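Ops channel
N.P.: pipeline sanity check, posting one input/output pair.
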């Protein structure tokens, strides 16, 4: 039998790999969208008027100062351990959802806090099997003398691992965003 050529093997791998990679990326994107949707509880409306959500392709600018003829339609305050990029994406997601034209970021800060926690001692058990090889004496039988023979045996058991008590320490990293969702007449499409 002739071995498969490299190009055929690569094309076969690509056919199998692309759907797998697409599925993996799709599931990661779905988890990210779900995480963004979870931040909607941190938005507080400041008006009784309900605006339709902005389409996904609408670019929502991030502003460091508030335009003069803008209307504040809501506040978004949120603290996360997922970083600055996620905090900003959450603000833009909530602005799009509430129909805002722009986001005025009043405060965006990051900091770290040390943590230390005690981990108690524990013993972990797992099934274990081991091949053992050795010589055994086979006793004589009528018409045959006794002899030594090689024998392989599996020994089944349980293996235990002991982890002593210890302290874990490190840093928790936080990001806080405080933003206003704005309607800006200049940016609102007619």
């Amino acid at each position: 039998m002739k071995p498969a050529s490299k190009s055929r093997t690569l094309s076969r791998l690509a056919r199998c790999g692309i759907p797998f990679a697409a599925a993996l990326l799709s599931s990661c994107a779905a988890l990210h969208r779900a995480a963004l949707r979870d931040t909607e509880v941190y938005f507080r409306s400041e008006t009784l008027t309900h605006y339709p959500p902005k389409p996904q392709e609408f670019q929502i600018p991030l502003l460091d100062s508030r335009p003069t003829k803008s209307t504040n339609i809501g506040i978004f305050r949120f603290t996360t351990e997922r970083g600055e990029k996620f905090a900003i994406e959450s603000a833009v997601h909530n602005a799009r959802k509430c129909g805002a034209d722009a986001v005025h970021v009043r405060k965006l800060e990051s900091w770290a806090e040390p943590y230390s926690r005690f981990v108690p001692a524990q013993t972990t058990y797992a099934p274990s099997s081991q091949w053992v090889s050795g010589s055994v004496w086979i006793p004589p039988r009528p018409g045959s003398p006794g002899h030594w023979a090689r024998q392989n045996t599996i020994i089944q058991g349980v293996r235990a691992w002991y982890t002593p008590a210890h302290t874990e320490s490190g840093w928790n990293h936080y990001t806080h965003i405080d933003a206003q969702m704005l309607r800006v007449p200049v940016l609102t499409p007619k």
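N.P.: looks fine end to end. Helices lie at 6-38, 84-98.
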